[in-house]
């Protein structure tokens, strides 16, 4: 990892490349319930799954086809063509009506709420991920339409565009431009909000008077408004180039398209090198949260193992949330999930720096995500206060 660069400078990224049409798509359905059954035919744009949470966008078929399988975490569609559903007319009113229309059209609506300050995050989310650059340069009108649409819901008095210092950008009308150091993890939403407001915000919470969306979010909203069609595409960085892909396209198909290949023992991350989640296999469909595909070659990069914590404190020294990742990882390792709250696990912004610097190469981010997941499960399963699963000392 000695040559790893934390730089968020994007340089010249070239135009957006449109990926070819795959033969199948596997739409990840975590947090959604399927609306169709195996064997049903769907058109491009058919709403195939409904969100279980009120702010999550519904899911739509990107192409026409036959549903081959309803899996526990996805819907597999064999593509037969491009016949589409009729476009929908966007509502004339803004506010909640427009918000719900967008949500049903596949837009995640958690950030679409009234707020005095709107922040547009144009900072690359991770090193090597440059999804915002081609959208700001070549799809400016769509991004601006997205911004106008968002303002009809947020009714914000102030808008900020936050960029990484040195990256090319142009301001939107009536918008204040602010730059942050072009060094990871400056682009994480919580740190961008802190740069604008001076306040710290917990991951997954929404301050009442501030809301934040990325340039990619604005682009996707602009496309829905422009076409009257739901979100079925997203933008990913693969090998330094940005690709417009259909949600649900298999990881392996996209790597092949980009001229990249993963070998046995390599890991493919959905996202960048610091925060990306490992793909289970090359058939896994890309979800709409992913910002890129990153191959970590066997023997290169971080190879986390369940080594004992050395108590060296390196992870704490580099944690921007000023918490104790080592102690939290021990709580997760021994299933003392509730105790992780005593170490302020919810202040973690999931930047992955602790794992990068861990002397013992412990999988700290994975432990933290596991503990957060288990805590959320415990909350939903019980109305009673969370009890420690394992009991005893961590
Ligand atoms: S991932 Fe690690 S370094 Fe980053 S905020 Fe969380 S605990 Fe701190
Ligand atoms: S850096 Fe790793 S080994 Fe050191 S205290 Fe943190 S978790 Fe333990």
Looking at this protein, list some descriptive labels.
17 strands; 26% helix; single chain; binds iron/sulfur cluster; 394 residues; four-stranded antiparallel β-sheet; alpha/beta; 20% strand; 11 helices
Question: Biggest β-sheet, characterized?
Answer: 6 strands, mixed
Number of strands: 17
Give the uncertain stretches in residue-range form. 389-394
Mean pLDDT: 93
Estimate the strand proportion.
15-25%
Helix content: 25-40%
Termini separation comes to 31 Å
**Which hetero compounds are present in the coordinates?**
iron/sulfur cluster
Which strand order do you get reading across the main beta sheet?
1-14-13-17-15-16
Find the structural class using helix and strand composition. alpha/beta
List the secondary-structure elements in sequence, H or E: EEEEEEEEHEHHEEHEHEEHEEEHHHHH
Note the total helix count: 11
Q: How would the global form be characterised? A: globular
Question: Any chance you could write out the topology, listing elements then pairs?
Answer:
Layout: E1 17-18, E2 24-28, E3 32-34, E4 41-42, E5 47-51, E6 59-60, E7 64-71, E8 74-81, H1 95-104, E9 117-121, H2 132-138, H3 140-154, E10 158-164, E11 176-180, H4 189-197, E12 210-214, H5 215-227, E13 233-238, E14 241-246, H6 251-257, E15 267-270, E16 277-278, E17 292-296, H7 314-318, H8 325-333, H9 337-342, H10 353-357, H11 364-381
Parallel strand pairs: 1-14, 9-10, 9-12, 10-11, 13-17
Antiparallel strand pairs: 2-8, 3-5, 4-7, 5-6, 7-8, 13-14, 15-16, 15-17
Helix pairs in contact: 2-3, 3-5, 8-11
The protein binds iron/sulfur cluster (2 copies).
One iron/sulfur cluster binds at residues 319-321, 323, 325, 348-354, 364-365, 368.
């Amino acid at each position: 990892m000695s040559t790893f660069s934390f730089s968020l400078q994007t340089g010249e990224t070239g135009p957006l490349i449109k990926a070819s049409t795959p033969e199948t798509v596997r739409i990840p359905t975590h947090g959604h319930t399927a609306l169709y059954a195996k064997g049903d035919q769907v058109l491009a744009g058919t709403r195939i799954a409904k969100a279980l949470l009120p702010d999550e966008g519904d899911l739509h078929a990107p192409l026409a086809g036959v549903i081959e399988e309803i899996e526990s975490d996805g819907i597999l569609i064999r593509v037969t063509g491009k016949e589409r559903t009729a476009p929908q007319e966007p509502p004339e009113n803004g506010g909640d009506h427009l918000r719900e229309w967008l949500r049903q059209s596949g837009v995640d609506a958690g950030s679409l709420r009234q707020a005095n300050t709107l922040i547009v995050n144009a900072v690359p989310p991770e090193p090597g991920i440059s999804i915002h650059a081609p959208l700001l340069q070549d799809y400016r009108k769509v991004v601006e339409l997205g911004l106008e649409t968002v303002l009809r819901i947020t009714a914000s008095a102030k808008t900020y565009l936050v960029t990484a210092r040195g990256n090319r950008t142009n301001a939107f009308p009536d918008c204040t431009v602010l730059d942050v150091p072009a060094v990871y993890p400056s682009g994480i939403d919580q740190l961008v909000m802190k740069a604008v407001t001076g306040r710290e915000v917990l991951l997954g919470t929404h301050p009442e008077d501030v809301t934040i969306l990325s340039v990619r979010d604005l682009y996707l909203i602009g496309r829905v408004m422009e076409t009257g069609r739901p979100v079925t595409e997203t933008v990913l960085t693969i090998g330094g180039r940005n690709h417009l892909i259909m949600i649900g396209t298999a990881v392996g198909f996209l790597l092949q398209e980009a001229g990249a290949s993963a070998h046995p023992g390599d890991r493919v991350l959905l996202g960048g090198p610091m925060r990306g989640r490992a793909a289970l296999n090359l058939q896994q469909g890309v979800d709409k949260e992913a910002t890129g595909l990153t191959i970590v070659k066997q023997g290169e990069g971080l190879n986390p193992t369940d080594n004992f914590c050395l108590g060296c404190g390196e992870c704490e020294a580099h944690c921007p949330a000023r918490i104790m990742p080592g102690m939290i990882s021990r709580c997760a390792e021994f299933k003392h999930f509730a105790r992780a709250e005593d170490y302020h696990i919810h202040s973690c912004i999931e930047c992955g720096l602790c794992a990068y610097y861990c002397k013992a190469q412990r999988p700290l981010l994975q432990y933290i995500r596991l503990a957060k997941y288990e805590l959320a499960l415990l909350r939903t399963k019980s109305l009673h206060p969370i009890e420690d699963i394992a009991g005893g000392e961590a």
